[in-house]
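R.M. (postdoc): so does anyone remember the format we settled on? I'll just put the structure tokens first.
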């Protein structure tokens, strides 16, 4: 991979490709579509995130890292990469966070309908100890004692198995933030279970973690409670 550098020293016409590899307009590093966020210009010229990678027109890419999106806005990289006059608002990094958050919570609701996302401390504890949980989730305002007990279950499961890492733990939203999107499905403690829908929750949660944490997810490897 190329070392990180400002895009102003390169030809930004190479921002979007037809193949499986894309290039970040800030770092000039290539990656798969799942490692970057696509942006396009709407008909009115406003730059918008295209998380599903389905919007028409020329696109450009930024690695999943809020600081890089902020730099692309500040240095006016989007207009150069998209080769047109564009409108880029200072709220774009926050808009991306909101959309990534919405993806996570919508996937949680879908996984719940598929019986691959459970809530409640007691059910989460059982799922961890039985080995059916693939990730746990806590509200940011969860009581420390409840988080501690679930962390103990994670550690006990890890010590009793040959797994290289503990079950990952995420702390992404407050209960009230979840209630706005998930309604009565908002939770204090939850777990994703094995299966396509449960794995979809974990994948999107890791993307949001990466975006908020400088391109790195703190969840794998047995991370404990995480603050935003």
């Amino acid at each position: 991979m190329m070392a990180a550098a400002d895009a102003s020293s390169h030809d930004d016409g190479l921002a979007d490709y037809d193949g499986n590899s894309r290039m970040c307009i800030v770092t000039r590093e290539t990656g798969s579509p799942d490692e970057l966020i696509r942006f396009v210009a709407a008909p009115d010229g406003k730059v918008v995130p295209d998380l599903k990678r389905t919007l028409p027109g020329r696109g450009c890419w930024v690695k999943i890292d809020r600081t890089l999106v902020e730099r692309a806005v500040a240095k006016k990289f989007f207009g150069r990469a998209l080769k047109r006059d564009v409108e880029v608002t200072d709220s774009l990094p926050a808009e991306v966070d909101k959309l990534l958050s919405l993806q996570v919570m919508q996937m949680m609701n879908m996984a719940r309908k598929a019986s691959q996302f459970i809530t409640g401390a007691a059910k989460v504890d059982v799922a961890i100890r039985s080995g059916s949980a693939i990730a746990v989730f806590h509200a940011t305002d969860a009581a420390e004692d409840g988080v501690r007990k679930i962390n103990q279950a994670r550690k006990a499961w890890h010590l009793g198995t040959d797994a290289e890492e503990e079950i990952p733990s995420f702390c992404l939203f407050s209960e009230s933030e979840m209630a706005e999107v998930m309604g009565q499905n908002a939770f204090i403690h939850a777990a994703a279970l094995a299966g396509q829908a449960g794995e979809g929750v974990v994948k999107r949660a890791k993307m949001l973690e990466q975006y908020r944490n400088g391109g790195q997810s703190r969840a794998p490897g047995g991370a404990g409670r995480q603050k935003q």
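R.M.: ...and that's the designed sequence above, right after the tokens. Also worth knowing: DSSP finds seven helices and nine strands in the chain. Residues 1-19, 220-228 have pLDDT under 50 and may be disordered.
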